[in-house]
Amino acid sequence: MNRKELIKSEEYWTAQIQLNLFELIENYRKKNNLSKTELAAHLGVTKSYVTQILNGDFDHKMSKLIGLALAFGKVPVLKFIDVETYIEQNDSIGAKGSSVNSNPPQLKKTFKKTGSVKRNTKDRKASLIRD
Amino acid sequence: MPKFATERIKVISCRQEFDQLFIDGAGQLDIFENDLKGTTYQSEFKTLLTYMEYLGNNKSLPKTKFRDITPKGEKIKEYEFKSKHLRIYAIQKPKGKIIILGGYKTNQDKDFIKFRSLKRLLLISLK
């Protein structure tokens, strides 16, 4: 698969929107120190609905998406861009071809054991993993 | 000892460096993608690539999509990208991640063993 195929897939954009919505809601929940139950009450929805969004599995009607955004004080802005233009504007890495390389490079010894990210206790406890 | 190499994954575009491991010239992510050809899981594979890209742009993923699976005492971090039926296993490198293996959820236990074995061999090869 190449970059263009991925960009042209429904899966790519569905996941992007689901993850954006997840971030919007999770950030709000954390900022206001709300449990899922409290957040559900705030939104007037069920706890399982909130869980679904926070699992990145939101796949409801457009009106629900808009309603959620507005409930968090945000407006959902939708723009349609040509695929080629999008790739040119957003990708630093080329959209050319397969990742298969018939002559793969030799592994350079740039890998360091100290490369792991150390987290403090607070971070470890957080439900999100950011690397 | 197999010959290891890494190469940047071109299908995703992100700030972090996402590489795939090559073993004797064969890319592990490419092998996984080829295994999925003709199956219903190709769609999930695209979703997993999107998760990798999203994380690679220093954004957060739900725990249900990405988790730290590093055993206690391990210095190099280990990660798992998750979709409903598929898994992609990765390790930390200084400015990003190296994809070591892809597999099915149903084969998770065996894949964990293979993943950690490959990681160990890779690290030995770098000494």
Explain what you see.
- The complex is a heterodimer of chains A (131) and B (127).
- With 131 residues, chain A is mainly alpha-helical.
- Chain A has a domain at 3-71: 434 Repressor (Amino-terminal Domain).
- Chain A has seven helices and no strands.
- Chain A has helices spanning 3-7, 10-31, 36-43, 47-54, 62-71, 83-90, 121-125.
- In chain A, helix 3 (36-43) packs across helix 4.
- Chain A is elongated.
- The two termini of chain A are 25 Å apart.
- Mean pLDDT of chain A is 76; it is low at 93-105 and 112-131.
- Chain B has 127 residues and is an alpha+beta fold.
- Chain B has one domain (4-126).
- Chain B is built from three helices and seven strands.
- The longest helix of chain B is centred in the last third of the chain and has 19 residues, at 108-126.
- The mean pLDDT of chain B is 96.
- The chains are: A mainly alpha (131), B alpha+beta (127).
- The interface between A and B is large, with 49 and 52 residues.
Structural class of chain B: alpha+beta
Using only C-alpha atoms, the radius of gyration of chain A works out to 20 Å
Sheet with the most strands, sense and barrel status of chain B: 7 strands, mixed
Structural class estimated from helices and strands of chain A: mainly alpha
Count of helical segments of chain A? Answer: 7
Question: Residue-averaged pLDDT of chain B, rounded?
Answer: 96
List low-confidence stretches of chain B.
Answer: none
Summed up, the domain count of chain B is: 1
